[in-house]
């Protein structure tokens, strides 16, 4: 059976590095837990590390976090849908918002539940995903800040996720200026400017982070050790906290080119083969994962002698060449994954989740 592992020692190393880094720079940070897909065992290991705030875009995941430790603070990090309002108030201490009518519903539900719900207003700084347009922001704020049982604790923005618009000093200065504007105009105090994410960490390292950006939401760099801005790995961080293992369920020497009339495969793809391989053979292994579990472009085998040959819904075919490592049926093939590869695997109920 295929399984994914989480190495808690390596995760703790990355956590400690980031925690010290943010403390040194007077930045409050929240762990984005999306990659764990609500897995209770993995979340329990994460919560042991001691940070007090967790962010996710799935209510069910926040519910699991609260069940593990009801004292930690949770953030719902996408604009709430109408049908989720009740649970957002129940399981999220804070939510990120962009729509006046949605905040009205949150206000009414917060009054019903007898709580004050905190919100961060998101501003669109050019990524064209969620966010109030800049020219509308002051008017939007004026409609929201007196709502019952709603406390505006921050302004925020999201960059790089949709179109890859990178954060820079100019964009983040704009965010800080909006904070100063509303504080003066409405005689309020905005505690947090949530302008940071994994992609923004290099700006802090380079001393390019504007004064006032004091809240980061970080997932990928914690779990992957990645410098998202430059597409590299950070020194002193681990990048293989997660590994995937799949079992060899068939192994034979077979031709390198299929025989018969060629059509399309189950995904509608057609294939061309190198005629120089006509009549040649190689050792081919089938492993017990498939397209229902993973997009193979997000996987890499740790054994560089292995090549990807193709996949169907429940099986992946690997070309082992002459099989120099001597794989046999029942052996495990080890893979590392990028962020989306891990998320896909974590979402598959057919892949066992183990802790190292």
UniProtKB/TrEMBL annotation:
Pfam family for this entry, one: Ala_racemase_N
EC number: 5.1.1.1
SUPFAM superfamilies: PLP-binding barrel (SSF51419)
UniProt cofactor(s): pyridoxal 5'-phosphate
One term of GO molecular function: alanine racemase activity
Stretches assigned to the Alanine racemase N-terminal domain: 7-225
Keywords: Isomerase, Pyridoxal phosphate
Record protein name field: Alanine racemase
């Amino acid at each position: 059976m295929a399984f994914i592992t989480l190495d808690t020692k390596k995760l703790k190393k990355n956590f400690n590095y980031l925690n010290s880094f943010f403390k040194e720079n007077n930045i409050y940070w929240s762990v984005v837990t999306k990659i764990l897909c609500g897995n209770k065992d993995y979340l329990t290991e994460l919560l042991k590390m001691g940070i007090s705030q967790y962010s996710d875009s799935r209510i069910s995941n926040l519910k699991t976090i609260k069940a593990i430790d009801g004292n930690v603070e949770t953030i719902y990090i996408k604009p709430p849908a109408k049908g989720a309002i009740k649970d957002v108030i129940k399981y999220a201490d804070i939510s990120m918002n962009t729509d006046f009518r949605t905040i009205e519903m949150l206000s009414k539900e917060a009054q019903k539940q007898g709580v004050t719900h905190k919100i961060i207003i998101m501003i669109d700084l050019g990524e064209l995903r969620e966010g109030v347009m800049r020219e509308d922001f002051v008017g939007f704020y004026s409609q929201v800040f007196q709502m019952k049982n709603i406390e505006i604790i921050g302004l925020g923005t999201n960059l790089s996720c949709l179109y890859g618009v990178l954060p820079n000093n100019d964009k983040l200065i704009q965010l800080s200026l909006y904070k100063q504007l509303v504080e003066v105009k409405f005689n309020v105090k905005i505690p947090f400017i949530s302008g940071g994410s994994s992609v923004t960490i290099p700006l802090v390292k380079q001393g390019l982070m504007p004064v006032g950006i004091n809240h980061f939401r970080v997932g990928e760099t914690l779990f992957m050790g990645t410098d998202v801005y430059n597409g590299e790995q950070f020194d002193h961080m681990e990048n293989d906290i997660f590994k995937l293992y799949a079992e060899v369920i068939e192994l034979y020497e077979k031709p390198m080119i299929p025989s018969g009339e060629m059509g399309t495969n189950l995904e509608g793809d057609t294939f061309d083969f190198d005629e120089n391989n006509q009549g040649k053979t190689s050792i081919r292994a089938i492993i017990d994962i498939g397209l229902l579990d993973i997009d193979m472009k997000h996987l890499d085998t740790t054994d560089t002698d292995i090549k990807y040959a193709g996949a169907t819904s429940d099986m992946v075919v690997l070309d082992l060449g002459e099989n120099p490592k001597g794989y046999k049926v029942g052996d495990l093939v080890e893979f590392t994954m990028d962020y989306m590869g891990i998320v896909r695997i974590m979402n598959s109920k057919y892949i066992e989740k183990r802790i190292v």
